[in-house]
Design a protein that fits this description.
This protein is α/β, with parallel strands linked by helices and about 260 residues long. About 40% of the residues lie in helices and about 25% in strands.
Length: about 260
């Protein structure tokens, strides 16, 4: 299995000297092809800064981000546009759908931005809509959809160009428990059946239990790594182990079982 994404000694600092905040303090890890990796940590731990650096929204102060061996910080012009449009798909917490566009138009928007014809994504659109159970809202506007439907439309938009990796930033944060579970089951299914590579930042232990591996971050560094003991380990058993680490993370203990 090859790494899709490599993070090496990544640093991002805010402020100076005594007031400096080390959002990312030399963090390193790899995301393997077909992996569903979760990033957990308390507010201010650096997890959202990490996603923003990978998405090139924030420029790191040091270290490397490599996508399929190519250093992201060196990309410019068409290469950077290709990276943002075709290599990564971004799923936001608050949907970020355009209110004046229908579900269909929101999903197909990345094709327009990157000068691709709708015909190139049309067939995949119907496959995604069927899988995500949003066929009946393709011609509706976001205001006419439930929160769960809006997030699944947003998921289809993130997937429409078949990116190398989906970056999901607290994707269940604006959903109730029922819709959160439905979304996570769909994302887990895409990972399992289509080998979609997903990197998800979350504070929700239930959402994290759908991952195959979790990195816990504290003060911009990796505090602990947790994997499913075996592929057959139940989600409920994995969830219990996540809660144990989360309790120690929040309590400041370094003695992780």
């Amino acid at each position: 299995m090859e790494p899709v994404l490599e993070i090496e000694f990544l640093k991002k600092y805010y402020g100076k000297s005594a007031n400096q905040t080390k959002a990312l303090d030399g963090i390193s890890f790899r995301v393997m092809q077909g992996e569903f990796l979760g990033i957990m940590g308390s507010s201010g731990s650096g997890k959202s800064t990490l996603l923003n650096c990978i998405a090139t929204v924030t420029r790191p102060d040091g270290g490397d981000i490599r996508m399929e061996g190519v250093r992201v910080q060196n990309l410019k012009g068409a290469g950077l546009a290709q990276y943002r449009g075709r290599k990564i798909g971004y799923l936001f917490q608050n949907f970020e759908l355009l209110d004046n566009l229908t579900g269909r138009e929101n999903i197909l928007l990345p094709l327009s931005i990157h000068n691709l014809s709708e015909a190139q994504g049309g067939k995949y659109l119907f496959h995604l809509a069927d899988y995500l159970e949003i066929t009946d809202v393709l011609d509706k506007f976001p205001a006419q959809m439930s929160g769960g439907q809006r997030q699944r439309v947003a998921a289809a938009r993130a997937l429409i160009l078949n990116p190398k990796i989906v970056l999901a930033d607290e994707p269940t944060g604006a959903l109730d428990s029922r819709n959160a579970r439905a979304l996570m089951e769909k994302l887990a299914g895409l990972n399992r059946e289509r080998k979609t590579t997903i990197l998800m930042v979350t504070h929700d232990s239930n959402a994290a239990s759908y991952c195959g591996r979790i990195l816990f971050i504290r003060d911009g560094r990796i505090f602990h790594e947790l994997r499913r003991e075996v592929p057959e380990e139940s989600r409920q058993a994995f969830h219990r182990r996540i809660l144990l680490v989360t309790a120690q993370l929040e309590g400041g203990s370094a003695n992780v079982l």
